[in-house]
Amino acid sequence: MAHIRNTRLRNLYEEAEFDREHEEVQEIEETVRNLVQEIAESIAEKDPLFRTTVLQSGSFYEDLKVEGPNEFDFMFCLEELSKIGVCEVKEIPFRSVRDPGYVHVQVPHPFHEKRWKKYISKSKKLKPKALLEKFEILVREALTEKSNDFHPKLDQHSFTIELRKISVTLKLVWNGTKYRHYEISIDLVLCIKVGGWPKDSDLQTRFNRSHPGFEVMNKVTEMGYHLIASSIGESGAPRPCWRLSFSKA
């Protein structure tokens, strides 16, 4: 740090820089990851429809985080709705802005439609806002129950839960040695795994067999993508729908 002579700049740099291999950074990550998994398991016990597979995402897990271990992102992938053939992706009709990043979802099979009827509209669309609202309730119940058994360095009396436009966001306070009175934000998003690749995508056209990146893109498209439950639609319009996500591709 000696090469930065300006004290203010040096202090800013030290605040922004963090060592991912630092013992306490790893302790924070492990604590957050374990807590999120416990929340998922508790939710599944309370409501089997919300049995999920937890996926790590966001800048921390993509090794792009530069400001400290204070933000974590997880995707809660609904297992039943992610099974092949359970959901159908539908284009949004009469859209004012053509935006292939948002779609509707339907549950055509009578058996699954009956199980999810509380979250299906009269027009047969799966309602992301209703699912998010229920998800927030389940997260709140699970975290409140777990608070008495928090990691010793997590303040069991200082946590908040907020339903945002796309995520349920948890705010926790960590009291460690290097990181004291340190606020940690955890975004939990509800999603569905979809096989194949969106019809609106032109990847197959742009990456034909003669393209040097064909093999890589072929593997990516075979992995599928996710639909994120959102209470807003294209261009920020207040029209709940599902947002395409390729963060795990």
Automatic annotation (TrEMBL):
Sequence similarity: Belongs to the mab-21 family.
Q: Is Membrane given among the entry's keywords?
A: no
Which controlled-vocabulary keywords does the entry list?
Answer: Coiled coil
Q: What is this protein called?
A: Mab-21-like nucleotidyltransferase domain-containing protein
* Bilayer-spanning residue ranges: none
Coiled coil, from the record: 18-45
Which InterPro entries does the record associate with it?
Mab-21-like_nuc_Trfase (IPR046903)
What this protein needs as a cofactor is: Mg(2+)
Q: Report domain Mab-21-like nucleotidyltransferase positions.
A: 60-249
- List, alphabetically, the PANTHER family matched: CELL FATE DETERMINING PROTEIN MAB21-RELATED (PTHR10656), CYCLIC GMP-AMP SYNTHASE-LIKE PROTEIN-RELATED (PTHR10656:SF42)
Domain of life where this protein originates: Eukaryota
Q: What organism does this protein naturally occur in?
A: Porites evermanni
